[in-house]
Write a structure and sequence with these properties.
112 residues, mainly alpha, two-stranded antiparallel ribbon, 5 helices, 2 strands, 36% helix, globular
Amino acid sequence: MQIYAKGLTDIAIEQPSTYGTLKFYQDHPIGRIPLLEIDGEAIPESAVIAEYLEEIYPEPSLLGATPRENAHIRTRVRSPSSPPRPPSPPATKPSSRCWAASWRAAPRRWTG
């Protein structure tokens, strides 16, 4: 999708001819597509490919204007099966505690 969103026309989108064969698994040990082949070297995984393309073709940018927006975008990319959530109300004071630290401080809040 990033290839289309950026308007890239010099990247062929096709399934490798050896996909599903022993040769494919020998050449690509992860054994999954998508993968981006560049000069005989393969870059696997959608998120890795997206980050690579963003660095090589920075315009138009598909990232946010701030590191926090980038984090939200990357989270959505890495969990496409999760339904979108409404945005959280802005906090009065930004907190940079990680979830694990918050969970350890109040383990009874976990209901999952």
